[in-house]
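Appendix B, example 12.
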Amino acid sequence: MNFLKRLSKKGDKITFYYDYGHGPGQRPTTGIFIYKQPKDQIPKNHNKQALALLETQKSQLTIEQQATGSAFIPAHKFKANFIDYYDEYVKLNSPKGNRHLSNSLTQFRLFIENDFIAPIDINENLCKRFRRFLLDKYTGETPLNYYARFKWVLNAATSDNMIFSGGVIDIHRIDPPGPCRFA
């Protein structure tokens, strides 16, 4: 991973950018800058800390690039608790005026009866038991809607490499076959 340096218009600061290529939008800013000629100890300390932060970001990006396509999940990307991942997904992806996703999380928490579940514990049997829990508790289309949102989260977790579809769970097999997939 390369970082580019650019001098500010005033010439007093150096800003760092990611270098993903030469096309438009392929050089976003890191948000990190250093002072070109620090005059006292405060800007010197700032420069030292900013360069350390830049090295940390560089290391994390290098590890992410090297881990792409493998089963390794970098520690800074890994969430040890599936409930935390689910909660973050709900916060980032809830459509306005629709409570299915947030209520799905609430029902999953009631089903788990715990604040912690490891991603490795999410398996096909747990999904089937959660489905049965929803069917026993609700009628109509409510269980279908909640379970569909739960599957959204599983799909996202699988694509984010939190859950591996090849080893832990195959999310396409957790519904029964037939025309009415949820009855």
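Residues 41-67 form the longest helix (27 residues). The first strand starts at residue 2 and ends at 7.
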